[in-house]
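Internal tracking record. Fields below are filled automatically when a chain is submitted to the structure queue. Please do not edit lines marked as system-generated. If the sequence contains nonstandard residues, flag them in the REMARKS field before resubmitting.
Queue: standard
Priority: normal
Entity type: single polypeptide chain
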Amino acid sequence: MTTTLKLLRFLGPTLLFFGSFVVLPPLLISYFNNILDSNMLWIYFSCIAYSLIILLTLRRKKFSYTPRDGFIITFLTWVFISVLASLPFLNNNLTFYDALFEAVSGLTTTGSTVIKDLSLLPDHVLLYRQLLQWSGGVGLVIVVLAIIPAVSGGMKVLQAETSGFADKSFSPRLRETARSLLKFYILITLVCAFSYWIAGMTWFEAFSHSFSTVSIGGFSIYNENFGHFNNQAVELVAVVFMLISATNFGLHFLSITKRSFRYYLTNDEFKFFLLIILITVVVSFVTLYLKEGFTIGDALRYGVFQTISIVTTTGFTLEPLTAMGSAVGFLIFVVAFIGACSGSVGGGMKVWRVLLMLKVGFSNMTKIMHPNAVNSVKLNGEKIVSSQIEAVFSFIAIYITFFLFFLFVLVFQDVDFYSAFSGTAAAINNLGPGLGELAENYSGLSDVGKLSLTMAMIVGRLELFGVLILMVPSFWKN
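SYSTEM-GENERATED OUTPUT FOLLOWS
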């Protein structure tokens, strides 16, 4: 009963944020365009009404949040908001499974879509899709923690929401940490929108795409995605902000507040992330030029933009990925499993885990060659204990297991292996576009296939353990 009250209380500020910043702006646009969206109107008033009820009843109650509460509240909040967010799509000729897929893809910042022709959607629905990604990017629970007073054990909820945000880069006080994240997120959104406008977008295009850029989402308001603009200045802006959003926000926060870049230079994860980007871009460029017959200019343009977009798990495209050839497409999809840095809004396994795994591998090789050598694994100058190494290897093992499970479901639905591999990778890494049959959209999947990938998106967003732990019987007993 207590956990239920905690969940109801958390839903109060969550729905307040969702109604005010995600539903209200598109609702106003629909009103001024004389096509008032009744579904959005109903959702908005329901969110506000519920928030007021919680304000008058549970607002002043103090709860102590346990790790068990954190996982339950986080998972159920995402499921509830996902179902609620799907309702506006039902007004636009989408089935329930399609609407749920689109909503979850937005909230998890995946960027996959089942909509064949975006030009058929009114402007307010297009803006709504973009705002779904923006709200999901920073994390719904972080928004809640920025609004409500810090509570005992609230860090458990934050840790269940996302990996890496709650680190020593920020204030030790939970509420200040959440507010710092939210302020920085809003700031880079505004700067990104202004930069897009300077580069040649209209204000509507600039804000719409800034929402999906800083959230590393990948949604666009055009069928051709970023290929619609055919503007290298716009693409450069996107590349810069994709890299910013894929980097640990704690590093940005420290560098800005301390006015020093040394925090970037001394961070092992960030340096390894840049190395991955550099190597993948070079390999993509050479492959496009020598193997696929691209000109030097096009090879550089596509190699940089598409590689950074996919490796950071953003998912913007200039052309369907199949246009780059099978070799480059497969390469960047495999690298996308690494994902973005911890403490960022990107998906994937996270760079620090892969870096740690490699360090352990090289350390073991050293021990084989020099059995008597004393060699410890360090990350950012700190020694990594065995429990942390075990956690990383177990995470990667479970990650691969989940991937193979969802891959099998798609293959069982008669999806060819190439398309199924890319679709599953895109979903669990919160990436977006696929390859083969799924290069343009996911409308060709069966309802079972769409529901499977919808689950994969949520699993990927909550980093596996947040979902897997709910399936363990002992979790519910104690």
